[in-house]
Specification:
By secondary structure, the protein is an alpha/beta fold. The chain is 23% helix and 33% strand. It is built from six helices and 15 strands. The protein has helices at 22-31, 41-47, 64-69, 85-92, 108-119, 210-218, and strands at residues 6-7, 12-15, 34-38, 54-57, 74-77, 93-94, 98-101, 126-129, 133-137, 141-145, 151-156, 160-167, 175-176, 183-196, 201-206. Strands 2, 3, 4, 5, 7, 8, 9, 10, 11, 12, 13, 14 and 15 form a 13-stranded mixed β-sheet that branches. Strands 1-6 form a two-stranded parallel ribbon. The protein starts with 5 loop residues before the first strand and ends in an 8-residue tail after the last helix.
Length: 226
């Protein structure tokens, strides 16, 4: 099956069906104005008064009312049942970064599946918004200019080792493992620098610092609008 890429020169807001709030969509679009819906996420976009540019998925969750309201959207039916709609979207999106909302407030199995996809670094750098945190895959090298005292968590999705500066509890010489030692509830003392031996570690910081995370993942000298 050959499916066309979704290309954007700006960041992409990706909306899922996990009950995203209209303010979350608006906040994401202030930083990533190109709007894409993952299947039933189109329902939330229309309910928020915003039509997505593209809808991607197996299209089993879109209501008839939403379909009738999608007048300008490009609809891509991606029927593969072996991967999630979230992964389908990231496979097709070609953009500097993605901010995903509506993927953490619904079913827990869906949230875990999303974090698994993020950890595998599929598609553009992707940030997943929660109510309090933003989660993203740590690249092999990561630098984050965070205020001192910022809560900083690492959750390995596979065993990884690394080194750090700027953390209250350094990770040097440690093996982080989803069935062993985790890296949650740490604290930044300021600028944090991390190096890992492989991909697979999820970073979680307070959502208020999402712009700093975007800048770190994209190499941008200036973060998008706060």
């Amino acid at each position: 099956m050959t499916l066309g890429k979704v290309q954007s020169d700006t960041g992409v807001t990706l909306v899922g069906a996990g009950r995203p709030h209209a303010p979350d969509i608006a906040e994401s679009m202030a930083r990533a104005p190109y709007l894409v819906a993952a299947d039933g996420g189109a329902n939330s976009c229309i309910a928020a008064g915003t039509e997505p540019c593209v809808v991607i998925g197996d299209l089993d969750s879109i209501t008839d009312e939403t379909r009738a309201a999608l007048r300008e959207a490009r609809i891509i039916e991606y029927a593969d049942q072996d991967i999630t709609d979230f992964e389908k979207c990231l496979r097709l999106i070609d953009a500097p970064f993605v901010i995903a909302t509506g993927f953490t407030d619904g079913r827990l199995d869906h949230t875990l599946a999303v974090l698994s996809v993020v950890a595998r670094c599929i598609g553009p750098p992707t940030l997943v918004l929660g109510n309090e945190d933003v989660a993203f895959a740590a690249p092999r090298q990561l630098v984050l200019d965070l205020p001192a005292g910022t809560r900083f968590s690492l959750f390995p999705m596979t065993p990884v080792t690394g080194s750090s500066t700027g953390l209250r509890w350094p990770i040097d010489g440690l093996t982080l493992d989803p069935l062993g030692r985790l890296g949650t509830s740490n604290q930044a003392s300021g600028r944090v620098e991390l190096a890992f031996d492989r991909p697979g570690c999820i970073t979680l910081i307070p959502r208020v610092h999402v712009s700093l995370a975007v800048a770190a993942l994209t190499g941008s000298a200036h973060a998008p609008g706060r």
